């Protein structure tokens, strides 16, 4: 009594897909991407997903810098932005330092 559990049952799996953290998805299957110093909203088509990751079938390319820090009010389409790695060093958005 009083006990509950979350269970994930894997019914199907896919390999070699483009995936993003599920928490990076905005309402309506949109994401924010870094483009030329600004954040731009982009529509994506998703496939399989769970609490951790979502498959992206259309709308993104490998290496596109997707915003994952959506918990701040100022993170929205159109704002100027810079990319920093986990050490705080600035990056140019191409995956290169």
Provide a quick synopsis of the model.
With 97 residues, the protein is an all-beta fold. 0% of the residues lie in helices and 31% in strands. It contains no helices and seven strands.
In total, how many domains does the architecture comprise? 1
Mean pLDDT: 86
Largest sheet: 3 strands, antiparallel
β-strand percent reads 25-35%
User: So what's the CATH class?
Assistant: Mainly Beta
Q: Please trace the helix and strand order, writing H or E for each element.
A: EEEEEEE
Per the CATH scheme, the topology name is conserved putative lor/sdh protein from methanococcus maripaludis s2 fold
Shape: globular
* Structural class by helix and strand composition: mainly beta
Counted beta strands = 7
Annotation field: number of helices: 0
> What is the gyration radius calculated from CA atoms?
16 Å
N-to-C CA distance: 54 Å
Q: Helix share of residues?
A: under 10%
State the CATH architecture: Beta Barrel
- The largest beta-sheet arranges its strands as 1-5-4
Q: Can you tell me the residue ranges where pLDDT is under 50 for at least 5 consecutive residues?
A: none
Task: Give an account of the 3D structure.
There is one protein chain. The chain has strands at 19-21, 30-35, 38-43, 45-49, 53-58, 83-84, 90-91. The chain has 97 residues and is mainly beta. 0% of the residues lie in helices and 31% in strands. It contains no helices and 7 strands. It has one domain (19-87): conserved putative lor/sdh protein from methanococcus maripaludis s2 fold (Beta Barrel), CATH 2.40.420.20.
